[in-house]
Amino acid sequence: MVYTIPNLPCSLPVATIPRYTDLEAVSKDINHSLELLSGSHFTSNAIWRDSFAMTGTMRTFYGPHAIGSAWQQTSKATQPSAFKMQGGPKVVRMGPNAWVELEFTFETTGPPATTCSGMLSVVPGEDGEWKIWVMRTILEQLKGQGNVDILQQVTQGGHADGVEGADGVNSATGDNGTIEVNAVNVTSELNGANGISKVNGVHTGDTHFDCVIVGGGQAGLSTGGRLKALGVSYVILEKQAEVGDSWKSRYDSTKCKDRNSARHLILDLDTDAADSTYMSSKAHLPFERTFPASYNEYLTKNDLARGYQEWVAKYDVNVWLSTKLEKGKWIADREIWELEITKQGEPKSISASYIVFAVGAGSQVPVMPTYENREAFKGIILHSGEYHSAKGWAGKHGVVVGTANTGHDVAEDMLAANLASVTMIQRSKTYVLPAEHYRETQTRLYNNRIPTETADRLYFSGPLALGRLLGTRHLHAMARADPERFDALERVGFKLDRFGDIFAYLFERFGGHYMDVGASAKIAKGLIKIKSDALPVRYTEDGIQFDNGDHLRVDVIVFATGFVLNTKLLVANFFGAEVAAQIDDFWGTDEEGELKGAYKTCGHPAFWFHGGAIGQARYMARFIALQIKAKLLGTPLPLYEDTPR
């Protein structure tokens, strides 16, 4: 596979910033530049990443000419003004690389009228003038339309209740105290989590909604909460019987294994399985820290489910449980979706102006390798999507096909369940990333000191190419300092990539790596065997035969071989081939380094994809909600689709 991310143009500035530099003067000069911004204000290797503030979507531009051209063109539609620096300048030094970080706010007249924020990384130019190396711009709010980042808690009776956040911190502001009351007219009837409709915003009743969200996982819940904060009528359709069941149905050992920051950071998006052990990002849902100190240090799948249930009750989020979407149809002349659903066993028809498809970026259709002579094998064969526990297999010979996250977890389960032998069949090199290495790069932002909302803006607003450059630099340095860990794996036959690109694995390959939380040591000690010198080709009555003639005795085989990741196939099943043909692919990166089809207009005027890790679900939901609200107001965000060169 050819990856886009490593080839994106991005380099760190080589600069000297003396200790005596007047940073306030730098800030003042840059602020003046923003009023008349052009390509001349940027370095030759500059990057601009916009999150819906100027382009109405997610865009990344490279080089001063492209940036200057895009800024001037988008400014005609958005009319930015009122630029104001916020906070104090900060110097970042990394060996020969240095720059000054600045934060600012601005407004747009539009329509729609908005408030926005931005971040700048500036360096001294050869001519003595300070220039912008990296610019980020972020849509914050639609003026006069409530706050997408603040939702008032309600009691069981539906009355507003201003209370402290879960750990005494209002993550929207970082201040101790009560949660700010959002001035949105909210009509609460009964708890929607019990399957009874309760609608806020424009519409009443339970047959038409401004937005229907398909899927009640972290992406669907986050979107529902954000829409409620903006006074948009919505319902979340969740096929499971309880909020959080999508987590509870995963295999028994599912948990977050990151000490010290487990409540903020769930380590890794394990995209090769629906029943993943790790999720890349932060476990909290919007508006609060969902997992206070009363939760286990290591969040289990049941902890996650319980936290989400409490969040739904606390914010009275409208979820219809045991409700499945059967079919949907877009009525173009009325600009409306007609949906056929089954709610608690009863057929029902509803309609919506907009759809958010929040069923994840994959993990629905398993990939199952086929080998000859399947009918001869007398043992057990499972895909990881069906797997829950190795209990009951004691004394059997177990095999796991696949060596990414789920494969390692299942192998550890088998070892703990006292199987007679445990062997992993490795078909290609695997990137092994020590969890403590990854944690060190993440806990600089996600910790008990920095509000989650602040960390999200810093983490998710930057250009992907820059995040990759800085992240791999740190990760590879730590890998070089710990060679024996990897040498030990290679000595027992594990085919290893010790300097992999985690960003390519997460955003393009969508998995295939292993976040090492302990299984590697068991492999190195020989407790878990590795078969990597041949590929399976044929079942036998009591095992598997390989293409080099080897035979392995097997009683139980678990295929941790991933899932079909084309979500468009699901769209076609629900909404028909015509709708599916209009929309973009979901996941993977485009030529700018932006995720395809995610969180933005994706080819159909009333359809959004939402999914990914928990942090992405939480943060990016705010932009989906703002886009939908702007459309409902009749002032959609101006969309910039040109590609300046």
UniProtKB/TrEMBL annotation:
Which keywords appear in this protein's UniProt record, sorted alphabetically?
Answer: Oxidoreductase
Report the InterPro entries cross-referenced here: Auxin_biosynth/cation_transpt (IPR050982), FAD/NAD-bd_sf (IPR036188)
**Which is an annotated Pfam family here?**
Pyr_redox_3
State if Transmembrane helix is listed as a keyword: no
Q: Which GO terms describe its molecular function?
A: flavin adenine dinucleotide binding; monooxygenase activity
| Coiled-coil regions, chain positions | none
List the PANTHER family hit by this protein, alphabetically.
FLAVIN-BINDING MONOOXYGENASE-LIKE PROTEIN (AFU_ORTHOLOGUE AFUA_4G09220)
Q: What is this protein called?
A: FAD/NAD(P)-binding domain-containing protein
The organism named in the record is Penicillium canariense
Q: Please name the taxonomic classification of the source.
A: Eukaryota, Fungi, Dikarya, Ascomycota, Pezizomycotina
